[in-house]
Amino acid sequence: MSRLFAAALAAGLLATTPLAASARPAASLETAEAQVLALVKQLVAIKSVAGPGNQTAVADKAIADALVAGGWARSDIDIVPLNDTAYIIATWPGRDPKLKPLVISGHLDVVAADPKDWQRDPFTPIIEDSFLFGRGASDMKLDAASATSALIELRRQGYKPRRTIVLQFSGDEETTMVTSRRIAERLKNAELVINIDGGGGALDEKTGKPAYWSWDGAEKTYNDYTIEVTNPGGHSSAPRPQNAIVQLATALKNIGEYSFAVEQNPLTKAYFANAAAFESDPKLAAAMRTFAANPGDAGAVRTLRASPTYVGKTGTTCVPTQVNAGHARNALPQRATANINCRIFPGHSREEIRALLEKVAAVPQASVKDATGDESIASPASPMRADVLAAMTKAIRASYPGVPIIPTQASGASDSMYYRALGVPSYGASPTFIKDSDSFAHGLNERVPLANIAPGLRYYLSLFTDLSK
């Protein structure tokens, strides 16, 4: 344990946890650990929220200042304002300019947080019971601080990468993702991307020990569709055979009852085969193993699709999330609309799903239109590259020997989709471990275990070295 953490423990700020105890002893990284803690507290205090007063550019400057103090030239750091936010790209030139760069990807914006709803002010970093509390603590300012500090530590140690390393943080990943797309376009010549806003480790709820670690190599496409029925309307005392609300309700019922095709790819197959060992429900565990071996097994599919945890990993899902209809209590509705939110399995276009929804609705008067626009894009799965998997395995097991490693496919959207859509493989690979019961990203009282700092640093030092040397 470093003097930094010993002092914190003595002050009652940190407690020894199974997560910390499981980490393998390593060379002293006191300076880097101290920098992580100072930088993450600085970032959490910055209100990098979309809208009036957005301070994402201030967070970019905090990263830039830390890098410059660590040896980067200002000319190698680009902070670009865009709309109400900004993004940052910092370059560490490699010894071989012919090699494509390694990109480390993340974001510095966070979702909104109302102080009235929180037990602690969301933009005041507070250390309590071995956790750092604050908006963005887990999503994803600790990882931003850790990855930045690891690069600074590598430079301090005299490391000279053969492959150029680019550190980038987008500024609107939680909202429109305009900067995410812009950055990917600028860095489309990259060899690969390590997205530190994906993957991560699970801690056992009872023991607090690491249960398994996941990396993700694909994600489903996020897309919203508007389904609409229009009608001339009229007086409610003179009903007509066709009613826009009834027609919309029929269309929504048909969509709600529709089962999309069962699908599997190498990532989801590996996920079900490995994650079954950590499922406490024997029936679900058996279904996971059966599905991994045979995705056509109807019984396994029924069981998994009845589970909110696993249904999204078996194919495309679409659900109605909002409805708006009518204009007066005593008038026939002239218009009825609903939002359909879809998470599309890789390999299908947004237009393909739009056309399918219109067919499934089976109401001629119902039209389905894409409501997402440029905020989302379909992307293929990244290849399961042996060099990347070996580097991630070595890095995570340096701190957590023997921890099971499970590949997975994310159901949400991240900056990775823009890289993958351009043909650049991207891998979600955060080293942060947390219990499900402590995970409050996007929610109230967001927190992250500070015991992640030392092993996270060792992970990043190993991973960045192996992928850039």
From TrEMBL:
Name recorded for this polypeptide: M20/M25/M40 family metallo-hydrolase
SUPFAM superfamilies from the UniProt entry: Bacterial exopeptidase dimerisation domain, Zn-dependent exopeptidases
Domain of life: Bacteria
InterPro entries: Bact_exopeptidase_dim_dom, Pept_M20A, Peptidase_M20, Peptidase_M20_dimer
Family: Belongs to the peptidase M20A family.
Alphabetical UniProt keywords: Hydrolase, Metal-binding, Protease, Signal, Zinc
Stored Gene3D superfamilies: 1.10.150.900, 3.30.70.360, Zn peptidases (3.40.630.10)
NCBIfam families: PRK09133.1 (NF006596)
Domain Peptidase M20 dimerisation per the UniProt entry, residue ranges: 220-362
Residue ranges that the Swiss-Prot or TrEMBL entry lists as coiled coil: none
Organism the protein comes from: Novosphingobium aquae
Record's signal peptide: 1-23
